[in-house]
Amino acid sequence: MSTKFFAELSKDYEKLFETEIGYDVIIYAGEEPIVKEIHAHSNILCIRSQYFRTAFSNDWAEKSNGKFIFKKPNISPHLFNIILRFIYCGNIELKNLQNLDVLNLLIAVDELNIQQLVTHIQEFLINNKTEFLHQNSTSILETIYQHEIFIDLWNFYLEKICEEPKVLFYSDNFLNLKASLLELLLKRDDLNMDEIEIWECLLKWCFAQQSVKNDTTKWSKEDIVKIEKLSCRFIPLIRFYDIKPADFFYKVYCYKDILPQDLIHDLLKFHIVPNIKPTKSSLALSRKQNLKLLKINSTLIGLNHIPLFASWIDKKDSSHYNDKTVPYDFRLLYYSSKDGFDNSSFHKNCDNKGATIWIAKIQDSTQLIGGYNPLDWGGNGWKYTTDSFLFNFIDGNNISTVNLGYVNNTNYAVYCDNYYGPTMGDLTCLSFNNCTYNNNGHYYPNINIPTNFTVEVYEVFQVIKK
């Protein structure tokens, strides 16, 4: 019968790392002004890392007074200590690291060829740092693109970007995206975005690269040549036949000077001649047939909001649902522009329907506020629940601008009254279109909703478990 003492063995090796007894490797980690000398043992490094095994066997490292000398200015002392501690005793703690440090650690362990950590850190980022990955999409995407081994993170990013491309395409950093990455994204058949929007973003990117203004009447011959030369690699990737006739005329045809003439001819024929089928060409096939998407009947939100709502309902803090895993249907109960803009219409359509998500567009803005009522809107008075929440999209077109707050005084989670609109804790809609928000955080955390605002449109969706 064998007895295993892995924990004790790990502690002993950790003690060896900390005491540095018999070290024969000196590593200078970091760059000026922060450089630290770290000591290690060549035998342990060779056993645990292909990088060091190769380095020692090929005499990469400088040797002085019987000790190997390594200089690693691209890895901070703090991160190198974390890596060495893992090499010695197999332990690593990522939760206390800053977001960027986790990403830099991933890059470092890739360089040092520690495959176990490459897989582990990718999994940690995907499961625990979703918000960080979204907020820094352009720079992180380019970093991942440079490291072919980051397969899990790359697939995660591509799936997320294709589900919610506007987060990247409408970001401030989109214009800095490298051409090779943009081409890769435009090749995707599952890019969930209207084709005319993709075309407009491509043009915006091209204009920025060549410092050309978006006014064809002021283009010189040189401007036309520059844009035509830059855009030619992307033109076959745009699904022009999916663009509506009006958009084609006003947003595509005006750029005919940079498009192939045979393409313009075929598109004109397609839009003018009744019942004609698209001409076979070098254009990529329609994305529509490849998009297996959720359905949502809304003028305020898009399909990318639905997985987010479902994740909040189930309190999934790190790993959100995607469009393929959402466990709820969202059925439109009430649309103020059609059903009546008053309290009685709201209650007529929404009372006693169970759990609902309500959304309100603030007048003269793109801001969307709303909340989740897991109970119903019937009755009179306050209702208790631990599961309700309020949300505030500063820009309803960009889901990364959201602030979320779960109820913190459960006795005042939802207020129901026939003379009130959707009212939850600190957010009161008494005259329906004019609402007030008390931001002192008594009932819900302060999520920066305006203290007074006018609602332009309401929508309420019944939440139904599939």
Automatic annotation (TrEMBL):
User: Please, which domain of life does this record's source organism belong to?
Assistant: Eukaryota
**UniProt-listed SMART domains:** BTB (SM00225)
Q: Which residues form the TLDc domain?
A: 299-464
The protein's matches in InterPro entries, at most eight in alphabetical order, are given as: BTB-POZ/Galectin-3-binding, BTB/POZ_dom, SKP1/BTB/POZ_sf, TLDc_dom
Q: Which parts of the sequence belong to the BTB domain?
A: 23-96
Question: What CDD domains does the record tag this protein with?
Answer: BTB_POZ_ZBTB_KLHL-like
Q: What is this protein called?
A: BTB/POZ domain-containing protein
